[in-house]
Amino acid sequence: MASNLLSYIGWTFLPNTVYYGIVIRAGDPKPAVGSARYVRDRRRIHMGVISAYLLYTIYEADHEIRRAGDFYQALGVSPDADEREIKSRFRRLAAQLHPDKMTAAAAGGGGARAAAEAYFVQLRLAQDTLLDATKRFAYDRLGPEMTRCRHCTTVLDYVLLGLQSIAPYYAAGALFMLLLGVLGYLQWGTYGAGGNKKWRWLSLLCLLTFELYTITRPYAPPLSRLVLNPLLATLTSHPPLLPFQLLILARKVGVTLFIAISQLAPLLQRPQQQQPRAGGGQGVPAAATTPDSAMLQQAAELDALVLATDRETDHLLALEMMALPRADGDAAMPDLRQRLRDHLVQNRVRAEPEVRDAVARVVAARGPTLDWGVTANEMEMQMEMR
Q1: N or C: less crowded end of the chain, CB within 10 Å?
Q2: Stretch 270-297: mean pLDDT, rounded?
């Protein structure tokens, strides 16, 4: 509890101090709260903290994998060691670490002898597992969990065991994402105005496909066999990653990237140009870069939609109250067409911002401003006279 509290305090206050210690000279004042520079700096600090925590989480997962070890490291052989090399290495370790030969440790007390016996049992289990081709296949892909299966005797049994072990993980992940989507939390991390929310499901599907491929194939995945392990052997002293260790690391990295992208995506989005309002107008602010500004943008779009709806209602009301011709039959049709034409020109065409701007430019170029209160025919007459 105390460690988690200290970690939270460190991640909350330390980045702010370090950032301003680098970018501001000693003695210079820090930017005022709420200023443009303060907002920009907080955005950069937030991005830096998320990225640093992502790297730290990956390092921590790798450290846990190395600390847990594996049967190959316990025997001191490589993952591609043959049967002869494994037996030879076990005989050498047994000669050195057999509990009956560790007289000094036994004299020190029963606890030391018990630890030596437990370690020797672990070495024997490692040898027995790696000398059996079926168990070795299962261990490379499932890890120590395969030793708990007493009824598994064939490769198919172990593959089914692996499928049963990963099914709850991905089922729970899918249900969790559905729940977040229903609650509206998956709005974070979307791209563009509409937001692309499918990348999360695609990521989960890719991770599941990679895990199924790793569990069912007779060889290690090319990612570890041809890329990661050669790089680790060349650049570091890191031991080779076994398939089950790669899967553990992939799960950890996948979850961490899921959270990091959801947090970083709103910060990485650049403000867009003003977008036109629905039904005309000067436009709404650029796309938001934070959840709060996104809500403000949605409110502005809703306000523009309400204004456009009001204008449409006024047009329909004016059309409904338009005086109809008194004549009946075919004699009334020309008059009715003329009135509908005047109504459309007056309330539809001339109400469009583009049309009003064009008319205003023509009038400004040719003469005084026209009278907007006249009918369409009178307006045309004024335009011809100009």
Answers
A1: N
A2: 52
159 with 215: CB under 8 angstroms? yes
Strand partners, 275: 284
Q: Is the pLDDT of residue 11 over 80?
A: no
Q: Is 291 exposed, middle or buried (0-12, 13-18, 19+ CB in 10 A)?
A: exposed
Encoded amino acid at 321, one letter: M
Confidence of residue 182 (pLDDT cuts 50, 70, 90): confident
pLDDT(275) > 80: no
Q: Which of 118-132, 161-175, 185-199, 344-358 has the lowest mean pLDDT?
A: 185-199
